[in-house]
């Protein structure tokens, strides 16, 4: 699959965070910022459907974008040369297959560096991973909504979850998820599925993780609340600090109470519980 890299010059980290949040509403799958340049990656065949809206968004913020075509093999080579291990407070190591194994006593997740969002490097993935380490999921059945690479599903089962359904709308993400759960030896406890929140009708989960974007989370909150068991936990991330009040208010309308919030690099996580 070929991808397009959108390059946007940004004034500072805050502008990069805001633009990343805005662009997350479109089919961009990964973001990185370096030396005042925001890079956003989108499948080549999905750009045409949203390019006018993206261009209008950039104009509204007074910035210009430059689109560069890249080949999948070049992307993968770039990842392999710039893919550091991720350390979550000395309790979890997220690494690629070419990195050394984690120290004894530390959980580890092996992630193949592909195009899907969720390698652990983004602040939101790190936040949800840490929240799962702190949440007692032993013996509980979970849902990873917008699962991407499947990293959060893998973290959950390595923390003791009995089973996790991993749902994503992107076929490339679904394929990468299957690759990663096999590499981590947890394919018997994670079920990848291609689709969206419509798959949730009639299902019940003890906990849900949803690391997507603000608009999708708000639209899907009723479905999450309906499928969550009484006393169940919902971990949501993929939004900025300014979005928290609106998300908490909508969650309250669905019978979900805030338990805790956390932030990292301007991004936020909200932990909710169904009464």
What count of helical segments does DSSP give?
9
Which percent range fits the helix content? 25-40%
Q: Residue ranges: pLDDT <50 for 5 or more in a row?
A: none
Backbone shape: globular
CATH superfamily of the largest domain: Vaccinia Virus protein VP39
Spell out the helices and strands N to C: EHEEHHEHEEEHEHEHEEHEHEE
Major sheet size, sense and barrel closure? 7 strands, mixed
CATH architecture of the largest domain: 3-Layer(aba) Sandwich
Number of strands: 14
Sequence of strands across the biggest β-sheet:
10-9-8-11-12-14-13
> Mean pLDDT score, rounded?
90
CATH topology of the largest domain: Rossmann fold
Strand content: 25-35%
Which structural class should the secondary elements be placed in? alpha/beta
What oligomeric state is this? single chain
Radius of gyration: 18 Å
Description:
By secondary structure, the protein is of the alpha/beta class. The chain folds into two domains: 3-79, Alpha-Beta Plaits, CATH 3.30.70; 118-274, 3-Layer(aba) Sandwich (Rossmann fold), CATH 3.40.50.150. Helix content is 33%, strand content 32%. It contains nine helices and 14 strands. The strands form three sheets. The protein has a seven-stranded mixed beta sheet with strand order 10-9-8-11-12-14-13, with helices on both faces. α7 (171-183) links the parallel β9 and β10. The longest helix is centred in the last third of the chain and has 14 residues, at 214-227. The radius of gyration is 18 Å and the shape is globular. The model has no long low-confidence stretch (mean pLDDT 90).
């Amino acid at each position: 699959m070929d991808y397009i890299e959108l390059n946007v010059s940004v004034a500072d980290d805050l502008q990069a965070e805001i633009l990343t949040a805005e662009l997350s509403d479109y089919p961009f799958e990964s973001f990185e910022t370096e030396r005042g340049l925001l890079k956003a990656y989108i499948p080549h065949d999905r750009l045409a459907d949203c390019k006018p809206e993206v261009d209008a968004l950039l104009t509204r913020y007074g910035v210009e974008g430059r689109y560069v075509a890249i080949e999948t093999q070049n992307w993968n080579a770039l990842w392999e040369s710039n893919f550091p291990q991720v350390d979550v407070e000395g309790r979890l190591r997220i690494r690629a297959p070419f990195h050394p194994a984690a120290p004894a006593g530390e959980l580890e997740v092996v992630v193949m560096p592909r195009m899907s969002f969720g390698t652990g490097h983004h602040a939101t993935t790190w936040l949800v991973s840490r929240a799962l380490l702190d949440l007692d999921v032993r013996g509980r059945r979970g849902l990873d909504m917008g699962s991407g690479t499947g990293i959060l599903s893998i973290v959950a089962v390595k923390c003791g979850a009995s089973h996790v359904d991993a749902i994503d709308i992107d076929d490339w993400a679904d394929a990468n998820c299957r690759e990663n759960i096999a590499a981590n030896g947890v394919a018997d406890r994670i079920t990848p599925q291609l689709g969206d929140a419509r798959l949730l009708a009639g299902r019940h989960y003890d906990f849900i993780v949803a690391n997507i974007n603000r608009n999708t989370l708000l639209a899907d909150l009723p479905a999450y609340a309906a499928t969550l068991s009484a006393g169940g936990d919902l971990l949501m991330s993929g939004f900025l600090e300014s979005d928290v009040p609106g998300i908490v208010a909508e969650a309250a309308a669905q019978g979900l109470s805030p338990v805790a919030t956390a932030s990292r690099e301007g991004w936020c996580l909200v932990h909710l519980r169904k009464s």
